[in-house]
Amino acid sequence: xxxxxxxxxxxxxxxxxxxxxxxxxxxxxxxxxxxxxxxxxxxxxxxxxxxxxxxxxxxxxxxxxxxxxxxxxxxxxxxxxxxxxxxxxxxxxxxxxxxxxxxxxxxxxxxxxxxxxxxxxx
Length: 122
Description:
- With 122 residues, this protein is an alpha+beta fold.
- It has a domain at 31-114.
- The protein contains 2 helices and 5 strands; from the N terminus they run H-E-E-E-E-E-H.
- A hairpin with a 3-residue loop joins strand 1 (52-57) and strand 2.
- The longest helix is centred in the first third of the chain and has 16 residues, at 31-46.
């Protein structure tokens, strides 16, 4: 019926971003950055403005996309890039049309571009 398997030689492997078989490490949001993004996201969900999100990690950027409905395209994207970090800042907020709303070196001021009072429909 069933077969008993011994786990004596089993060692769990933890995924890392630095050991990706010779490729460049992924750009990721650290814990404090992700906490700030999710706090702002949860306020907007409670207000009924947003309903879904996605996170994407690539070698050159990390993207947090915000959706009003799952079936639609992203309303806003919060992007952390490695390449632009020295000149223009590593964080940017991009609208659905591709327009950069705000860019900077620190996440807090960049997230203020998504202030609910500024983004009300008229």
